[in-house]
Amino acid sequence: MMSRFILYRPVSRPSSSAGADGESDSVRCGDYVLRHYGSGYMQLGETGIYIGGYILPRNSLFAAYGNTGQHDLVSRLYAEHGSSFTGHVKGRFIVIIMKAGKAEVYFDHLGLFRAFYHTSGDRFMISDTVRQLTEAGAPRDPDRVSLAMQALFNRVPGKYTVYRDIFKTTGADCFTLDGNGVSHTHYFSPVSLTENVTGRKEPGVEPFARLFSDNVRNFNSFLGPERSMITLTGGKDSRTILAALLGAGIRPEGITYGNNLSRDAVYAALVAEKAGIRHTVVAPEATREWFEAEARAIIDTGDPEISIHRSIRHFAFAAAAGNTRRECAFYAGYLGGELLMGIYRDDLIFTDFLKNLWNGAPLSQLVEQRLGDYFIKYDSQLIMAVRDRIGELNCTDMKQPRKMREFHAIFEIGIPHHTQDITLSSHFWDYPCPLYLDTEFLELLFKSRYSFLFRDPSTINPFRRHALFTINMGIQHRLFPELDTVPFGKRGSYSNSEYLRGTLFWSMVKGYRFLTERKKYPPSFAYGKEYGDFLSGVLADAVAAESPLNGFYDVPGAAAGLGKLVFPLQERHLHKYSAIAALHMMYSDRG
What we know:
Elements: E1 4-8, E2 18-19, E3 22-23, E4 25-29, E5 32-37, E6 41-44, E7 47-57, H1 62-65, H2 70-81, E8 89-99, E9 102-107, E10 116-120, E11 123-127, H3 130-135, H4 144-153, E12 167-168, E13 173-178, E14 181-186, H5 206-223, E15 227-231, H6 236-247, E16 253-257, H7 263-275, E17 279-282, H8 288-299, H9 311-321, E18 328-332, H10 336-341, H11 352-358, H12 363-373, H13 380-390, H14 402-426, E19 431-434, H15 439-446, H16 462-467, H17 470-479, H18 496-499, H19 503-516, H20 529-544, H21 555-563, H22 575-588
Parallel strand pairs: 15-16, 15-18, 16-17, 18-19
Antiparallel strand pairs: 1-5, 1-11, 2-3, 4-5, 6-7, 7-8, 8-9, 9-13, 10-11, 10-12, 13-14
């Protein structure tokens, strides 16, 4: 059973109650009550410890703590280091420590475990779902500024949500709850990864290969998943993780989303066959009814940060989970390419609004153009509020160098985007593991010159392009060279063995295949007319029902714009419509 929780300050003393996920247990600490579902809570002497997600010791401490359980690990490190215990652990977690009438709440460094909180007067509540907050009395009213920010970035950045008085955790959040009220701090800042680094000497590939190997071995030793799953594509990031797993003697099952004739699916099948692992391509028959059912399933998670565009991922997770139990590890290569090569400007994760802002376009002009294009009803007051909200982000600070803006965008925009899939997978498996978002990997990467901060992915210089792939290719070759002969699924496909023969040979092979390979593959997943019909139905209902969203959006204009589209389309073309549809569905389901 997935562990659920809400920590809140009730009006009166509550008792144990039943929830949507089964029977809950309640534990009181001073003025606060922790209500939880599942087995995340343990009482150790006078200290109560709740863990959601998972937590494990850093590799350097594994010899000393590798044989403890997760609760014992937290108890021992907290006894020795107090609140600084977070510097000795990693994972995807919330940890609540309850002792002597005080509750301390800690989240993982990068915000991989996301929660929501609300404050009203002297009442504070925090939960892993918005639904539990609203059931406990939190209001659920749209935030006009957040809806505008969602139009600009395809998501609501920072601590805000689409609801005016409900906020979300963002990474390394630490709350202290006691008789004096609530304090909220952050124990880690991503910018510290780039500070106090002397020399930035190339460490070579070997430390990275050793780290990947240690990470998967320690992860499996400490948490003991009964099975392992991995998303396979034709790219390098998933192949690097697969090589690390195979090199450690772990044989995962591979899953690929979408069309089984796509380039990703075809090349993933090749690598799975060579590795001798089971591989499944999950491709739904996407009818209008299917889209509606999947959208409602995503909304029912109680996490408004998850876009209904994650339908195919949710479906794939559910299909793959049918043959597994919860005690499963799920590996994915989220942001591996961006961390090594730089962000992709495709108006999906990192929007054209952000790209144009970085290129020096006037902010007010960009905001008004994007809001109008996304059917937001705006006035001068909203524009001013949006400018203020944009100013809270580091990735929009034009006084910083371009590369540092990209660095902050990875943490402020990129990781929250991928946390959608991490959160969805956690509904089926206990141990989602985005291996490139490991804090020890990030520390090693940004102490070297292998990060995107020192790379130019737009270069056509073959020697510089060859260097872009040093880490991934080197790790794969060292940890499982048996995969070296399998080509990657990119135009001008080449294998690791061809890459390792040097820049000249690699460039010639890649260029020849790029020119001669004429086969065109369908996209992994495209949104057809069935998806358009689903969105049209929701928008029509919003117009007919006189939805409160009409006060924020030009819903009739959106419905008319949607009717002019020619399908199939990609996700980036549809956010302006699906954001309105999803919010309307949330409000239609308020009961």
